[in-house]
Amino acid sequence: MKNTVAYLLVITLFITSCQSVKVVVDYDKSAQFTSYKTYGFLKEGIDRAEINDLDKRRILKSVEAVLTEKGLTKSETPDLLVNFFTKERQEVNINNNNYGGFGYGWGWGWGPNIGAQMNISTSTSIQGTLYIDLIDTKRKELIWQGIGRGSLTTDVRYKEKLINTFVGSILEKYPPEIPL
């Protein structure tokens, strides 16, 4: 019984680790992050994002929810402009599980026959990157960028949850913890 529980725990950890979003952030160390209280979206930048309008709306809705939760207010005259863009690539994984054997049989002649069993499998996945930029409207400069990378899905049932995971994981790092 203990082995079964341990096995299930390992499988669960493996599956959840495969679905995680890897996040990297960069920011302007001179920016006064505590002074930013309002945000808006950079329409021109978001319009250029190379994803469908449904996913754009999902990302916008998720960004709004996270920034509102962090205490920022959406405004027509914002302190910060939010922009985002995406990249994706298809990843092909090839697994070559060869194993050899030894035995008698018909080969190049009568006698020992050494052979190999070929077992090759392939799988594909779509890896996506979401960039979220925060721009200071007064300075007209990028002050913070979060980048999230992870596996994507084309299954509509899971898109919203996956987008919320990407956006939440990235914006979890905003504002940056600036060492004193």
Provide an overview of this structure.
This protein has 180 residues and is an alpha/beta fold. The protein contains 4 helices and 8 strands. The protein has helices at 2-18, 43-47, 53-69, 156-171; strands at 22-27, 38-41, 73-74, 80-96, 99-106, 110-117, 120-136, 141-151. The protein has a 6-stranded mixed β-sheet with strand order 1-8-7-4-2-3. A two-stranded antiparallel sheet has the order 5-6. Helix 3 crosses helix 4. The chain is elongated and about 60 Å long.
Blueprint of the fold:
Blueprint lengths: L1 H17 L3 E6 L10 E4 L1 H5 L5 H17 L3 E2 L5 E17 L2 E8 L3 E8 L2 E17 L4 E11 L4 H16 L9
Parallel strand pairs: 2-3, 2-4
Antiparallel strand pairs: 1-8, 4-7, 5-6, 7-8
The whole-number mean of residue pLDDT values reads 83
Euclidean distance between termini CA atoms: 50 Å
Q: What is the structural class?
A: alpha/beta
Question: What's the β-strand tally?
Answer: 8
Range of helix content: 25-40%
Spell out the helices and strands N to C: HEEHHEEEEEEH
Q: How many DSSP H or I helices?
A: 4
Rg from Cα: 24 Å
Q: What is the 3D shape?
A: elongated
Low-pLDDT runs of 5+ residues are 4-18
Widest sheet, order of strands: 1-8-7-4-2-3
Strand proportion: 35-45%
